[in-house]
Amino acid sequence: MTIAVTGATGQLGRLVIARLKKTVPASGIVALVRSPAKAADLGVEAREADYGNPETLARALAGVDTLLLISSNEIGQRAAQHRNVVNAAKAAGVGRIVYTSLLHADRSPLSLAEEHRATEADIKASGLPFTILRNGWYTENHTGSVGAALAGGAVIGSAGDGRISSATRADYADAAVAVVTGTGHEGRTYELAGDEAVTLADLAAEISRQSGKNIPYRNLPEADYAAILAGFGLPEVFAKGIASWDADASKGALFDDGRQLSALIGRPTTPLSAAVAAALP
């Protein structure tokens, strides 16, 4: 049994590899990465897998039973990149694909959803056994700005009072491991989200409670938020994207109360308080 993981040196990929090593022999794990040298510390076999070079994908997927396709971080190029991997997986005789998609990808208004919908369709059209893990928002998407909130005196965003059912990368990594090492998941699509749904005002309140400082949430019009992010040095396209995702969240796009994630990992998802504590400087 060989399990291969794409994007293995990314933040989610590293967590998955570390957790897999506690469950299956390291000899049965393959890290698929653009630069094998960067994966030397993972403690498993690393193979070159360049999304843009199908030849490397064919070699990388030889002998793989289960492929965990962690979605690429190159927004705008992901559909084509993932298609190359799916085609190579089919040609190599991979036994199963597990793909990290987006929460409610089939109906999500988020601009991110289109590429995920395309990849889900490609996987289903391949004829390979599959499982779709529709991951919700990462709590780290918000706790990553705890330092900036403390420095600036406020949490800012455009999510209004939208409830966000986020979970940590560790939660999603555990779900991926449960599926790639388990049985009975073929043909299933899981909507994965945190047990608790919080607003950005809740985030600000938790930062305030743990830091001892008064950190309010300041809601901004989408265009104003995008402009501020661009002012921080983010590329304009990415700044507009983040602001638009917040605006979508204000309308419920990141809410889910199905608790499929905690059911899959056999424990409650990580609470906001723990995530904030880990992020405090």
Quick structural gist:
With 281 residues, the chain is an alpha/beta fold. The protein has helices at 11-20, 54-60, 78-92, 113-126, 140-143, 146-152, 169-181, 200-211, 222-231, 236-249, 260-265, 272-279, and strands at residues 3-6, 29-33, 45-48, 66-69, 96-102, 130-135, 155-157, 188-192, 217-219.
Cross-sheet strand order for the largest sheet = 3-2-1-4-5-6-8
Return the CATH class of the largest domain.
Answer: Alpha Beta
Structural class: alpha/beta
- The CATH architecture of the largest domain can be named as 3-Layer(aba) Sandwich
- Count of structural domains: 2
State the helicity in percent bands. Answer: 40-55%
The count of strands amounts to 9
Distance between the termini: 42 Å
Examine the coordinates and then state which fold CATH places here, giving the name of the CATH topology of the largest domain. Rossmann fold
Query: What's the shape?
Result: globular
CATH homologous superfamily label of the largest domain: NAD(P)-binding Rossmann-like Domain
Report the C-alpha radius of gyration, rounded.
19 Å
Average pLDDT, all residues: 96
In the predicted model, the low-confidence regions spanning at least 5 consecutive residues are none
H/E element order: EHEEHEHEHEHHEHEHEHHHH
Strand content: 5-15%
Total helices: the number is 12
Q: Which sheet architecture does the biggest sheet show?
A: 7 strands, parallel
Tell me what you see in this structure.
By secondary structure, the chain is of the alpha/beta class. It has helices spanning 11-20, 54-60, 78-92, 113-126, 140-143, 146-152, 169-181, 200-211, 222-231, 236-249, 260-265, 272-279; strands at 3-6, 29-33, 45-48, 66-69, 96-102, 130-135, 155-157, 188-192, 217-219. The mean pLDDT is 96. The chain has 2 domains: 3-135, Rossmann fold, CATH 3.40.50.720; 137-168 and 193-256 and 268-281, UDP-galactose 4-epimerase, domain 1 (Alpha-Beta Complex). α3 (78-92) packs parallel to α4 and α9 packs antiparallel against α10 (236-249). It has 12 helices and 9 strands. Strands 3-2-1-4-5-6-8 form a 7-stranded parallel beta sheet, sandwiched between helices.
